[in-house]
Design goal:
267 residues; 16% strand; four-stranded mixed beta sheet; alpha/beta; Purple Acid Phosphatase, chain A, domain 2; globular
Length: 267
Amino acid sequence: MAIYAVGDIQGCYDPLRRLLDKLSFDPQHDELWVVGDLVNRGPQSLATVRFLKGLDDRCTAVLGNHDLHLLAVAAGVRQAKDKDTLAELLAAPDADELIQWLRCRPMLHHDAQRQVTMVHAGIPPMWTVAKAVAQARELEQALRSPDYVYWLKKIFKRPKPRPWDDELKLKKRLRLTAAYFTQMRFCNAQGVLDLDSKGTTTSAGFAPWFSFRQSPCYREQIIFGHWAALAGHSGLDNIHAIDTGCVWGKSLTAIHVDSWQRTDVSA
């Protein structure tokens, strides 16, 4: 059995199938982990979600910022953007079923046996893996609750640049947790976010979330996406960046979770 983690698909269904063929992926024996941003900007979000849902328990997909955006648009919380490519999915006869499936995906996946964690954007430097798991479960509970539309409204308010505090009120805590897991690139040691810098440089006082040596997660094996500008390179052997910009015409990357061997296909 092999486990492969694949980077941000964003509706690029054809490259995904070519990548799985190149890996000789067999859902009878292998598992597929997806690092989030299953949908949007690419041409085949509907086919992508149908395919991944059809893999059943052979697929573990965490939610990314584009996936949360889709949930919010479907719930009437946000307006679709000009660059969105979600209309086909939202109009599909099985749209409700697909949205429900997405809503029940985790925010973070931790394989305790392998001691590997997968998240879309990252884990802030003041959290342990156990703390990240606990915060993910709190956010998942809100998104899966009967009041999920209310919580989507709260999550999509831009978080203020504040340090993390366990004593934050629930709505502020969930908003900041969602930003860490789905939007974060740069922050400071206290978890204050720089959400404006999307390349490889930031303002003074901020740094890539994975670069803080005092972080309890600095030596952990973490798989993440979201940051195409890194071109798949974090500079650390244990921090595995696998968003290689497929939707921007570059490549789609998979990584073997035990050997860390990478495989890619062109967009």
